[in-house]
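quick one, 163 residues, struct below
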Amino acid sequence: MIQTREELDKVRAECRRMVTRRAGLSAGAAVIPIPGLDIGADVSLLLALLPSINEKFGLTPEQINRLHPNRKKYTFVAITGVGSRLIGKTITRELVTLVLKKVGVKVATKSVAKYVPFIGQAAAAGLSFSAMRILGNAHIEDCYKVVEQVLADTELPTGGHAA
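---
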């Protein structure tokens, strides 16, 4: 469980590196001109990435259920305030597909673009990398805001933390 702002910043930096690595894998899959491979790769990457981010921030359903009731309450209030559908939830293929639809224009563009020799493949890879980084980093920031809010809400006047 994250207890300090320094720990929170460290987790955010670790997660950003993880997102960049996964975005590179997504870009690599986008270069291969096989219909549907890039979308399938993105779904698979996100099915692994999003729960990993939640876990690093202590925001998986299991981790939240183990919290002290007071901290659990503040966590749910913070999640609701951020408005994320991905925090504190089991990440499913359907949920990932819904998230990908939010960047659907980029996904559709990269799927069509990769069939144009070389330049299209490069564009598809760039779009794929960007879309994966945007989704991953947005999720990191949502998780960061939730934990930051919980830390602020549970901080004691003496500088310690409540349960």
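The chain has one domain: 5-154.
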